[in-house]
Amino acid sequence: MDYDVAIVGAGITGAAIARELSRYELKVLLLEKEAEPAFGVSKSNSGIIHAGTQNPPGSLKGRLCVEGNRLMRSEIASDLGLNFVQCGQLVVIFDKADIPELEKIKKDGETLGVAGLELVDRAWLDRHEPNLGPEVKAALRVPSAGIISPYRFVYALVENAVKNGVQLKTSAPLTAVGKARFGFELTAGGASYSCRFLVNAAGLRADDISALAGAPSFKIIPRKGEEYLLDKRREHIANHIIFPLPSKTSKGILIIKTSDGNPMIGPTAHDIEDKDDLATTDEGLAEVLAGARRMMPSISKSDIIAYFAGLRPTAGKDFIIRHEDSVPGLVNAAGIQSPGLTSAPAIAVMVAGILRDHGLELKPKKDFHRLRPRPAHLFQVPLEETRRLIEKDPAYGDIVCRCELVSAQEVRDAVKRGARTLDGVKFRTRAQAGRCHGGFCTTRIMKIMHEELGLPVTGITKRGPGSELIKDERK
Amino acid sequence: MKDRQLVIVGGGPAGMAAALAARAAGVEDVLLLERDQHLGGILNQCIHPGFGLHHFKEELTGPEYADRFVRQVRSDAGIEVSLRSFAIKLTPDRHMSYLRPGAMEEVRAGAVVLATGCRERTREMIHIPGSRPSGVYPAGLAQKMVNIEGWIPGREAVIVGSGDIGLIMSRRMALEGVKVKAVIEIQKTSRGLVRNVVQCLEDFGIPLLFQHRISLIRGRDRVEAVDVVKVDDELKDIPGSGFSLPCDTVLVSVGLIPENELLEMAGAEIDPKSNTPVAKDINLTSVPGIFACGNACQVYDLADSVTRDSELAGSLAAAYLGGAGK
Ligand SMILES: Cc1cc2nc3c(=O)[nH]c(=O)nc-3n(C[C@H](O)[C@H](O)[C@H](O)COP(=O)(O)OP(=O)(O)OC[C@H]3O[C@@H](n4cnc5c(N)ncnc54)[C@H](O)[C@@H]3O)c2cc1C
Ligand SMILES: Cc1cc2nc3c(=O)[nH]c(=O)nc-3n(C[C@H](O)[C@H](O)[C@H](O)COP(=O)(O)OP(=O)(O)OC[C@H]3O[C@@H](n4cnc5c(N)ncnc54)[C@H](O)[C@@H]3O)c2cc1C
User: Among A164, A366, A463, B298, which is most exposed with the fewest C-beta within 10 angstroms?
Assistant: First the structure.
């Protein structure tokens, strides 16, 4: 048997499970079909570490969200060097008649164990959120909510898992699952592996993977969310993440602080059929603008500098996290819709427990490396720190991306830490993520990747094979 | 922290003209900061002719035009050129910080001229919906790929915007063997020079579609097609007029925006629409002792006009230093 556990999918769910299992004396394989981790749903979301409110009290996602939030605040952010900002959240109402709704959210939240909830009036809001529009009447304040960079969260988990012995295979789509005497035979990316347990964390494809393994027990429906990023100039437009009262299918259009500065508005929530449809639409833009402007009328269309869409992998109302008794050894972590980013660390602990209950021995490693050093980013440090970095390493003074202040050293470091594509560099460093969208820095980054990876420039891609940047090189 | 008389940020035609004019007006100490490895700014990638007709009374390419100034700047001992030097901070009392490989420098400037040029408006700024595949580039980035790096971005292109840069890049792509399917322009006329419409499109048989817009970009990994729709005089889509153009590349050429983040940091008033300094007269800003010129001050069509006006910025800075010294 090559591996004790094989995990399919290196999004936040698979990454958190891999890191959790790397605490133990186990051989763990992490398979990802894309060129890099975090290229699925986990890259296109709101980046909110939810408090856990707005989930039904008895639900799995409510419990795991509250626990995930607690783990983030108490250990994960500091252990993994993550830039988690606990800015708090407000749920606002436009009609005083909705105060009972806020009180219900408060009560449900308290039942789930969310602390510090309080109703605040317009006078409080005027002091703390001066840009709210006149329609807003009152709000529920949720202090434990916060924000994070979702892809850097995934990269940190994967890097730490790999440091602790997990084998990561990218560009390795799982295409066949055979049953072995005590487990599974896997075919992925042209290679074969055997494993005792198979953990399915394949996001939008989790239904296909479960079926491939012999348990066609659920179906994933993608629910599209469009998000629109605003210029950094609008960074201080809000001090909290701002929600309206939730509807049946979504938490509504939000004003979202992001950990890198640019505020964001969105997301929409519409069920669709095509799991590859990541297009933004004129209608989505109109819906998002209208929703955000109702809460903050000063937000305008010309503030928008970027946009994207993500697909929530839904399978009914709740997460599906279980051992499939019809296929012994198969554990599904599926239907991980929102708040999946928040819940991932708690999902990971739960999955480890399920594996143990089905016979996997969890023996703690003596030399588990709990800490991951925080990579240096000029945009996150004060000037004096910048000076020290440059004096230590001259290439920190060689600026590649002028909108977001990213140096050649950071780009090289990103490649050393695993970036293989331009998007991978962007997600790790922010180079190309600013106002000019790579107008100035794209060619320079391509040249650095060419030097570091020995790839021909015609082989450099935006996000993997098929997305090459250029067609020919003139000789 | 070192004291410097005049610090100029940006080594394009604007910064170079300001430096030379300031020297001619008696400024003894000029520090010229340029982020790139060469002087010349955007001109280095404009290898087409059309420069210098006014200033030199002859037709030059962009690099030739730049080179005339580079030589003068380089042979002037009073101008210190610092390349790969990126200005990151400017205060109202003209303390400037800049980064270069190996050091973070801080200077106190008697006067500052900002000649930082423009960035391009992007697909995102005009909100073209659709997927986000590779193959969608600002036209200036494509120009840099082709002219500086020798990289051909695609095989079949659609150009958005019929300003001069869009027109020139249409021809450039055609000359490299790329099939340019169409230039899409939402307005009724082109902002570009008539000679460019003729020489860059008509001579190459490239269709120019006025009153059209791209309503969707298709393709997961790489652009596969764009949907195009005709618009009426109010820019509203005309129902039933839509069609699809298969292509692997979309070049977006929808205008330039002055780069004035340093000026903003120094507390100067900026017009939020045009991103240009708000001031009584050209080359001035609302902060005394800080000047702006070239594309950072207003978007120019002709490099010759940049040179002319930026010389004035150099003399204004010299006059300020003279007055401040007395
Ligand atoms: C618009 C939007 C906003 C959201 N906002 C928030 C938020 O603010 N807070 C929050 O907590 N949650 C949020 N979510 C939810 C959150 O993003 C998801 O719950 C989470 O990212 C799911 O992670 P995952 O790892 O399960 O899926 P994914 O990230 O999609 O990972 C699955 C991985 O499996 C890989 N894979 C698929 N098939 C195969 C195969 N055959 N072989 C190998 N690999 C395979 C995929 O390539 C992918 O990388 C939001 C979601 C959306 C869409
Ligand atoms: C694609 C294109 C085609 C053109 N074609 C023609 C033509 O055919 N004929 C014609 O007459 N004109 C043409 N022009 C116009 C002309 O080239 C420009 O108006 C002129 O180059 C502007 O000069 P500038 O010095 O203001 O800006 P730029 O040439 O852009 O120079 C600005 C410089 O500042 C540097 N810089 C910016 N920020 C910093 C910082 N923080 N620290 C240090 N350095 C910094 C940049 O690296 C750059 O080198 C064209 C322009 C473009 C963009």
Answer: A366
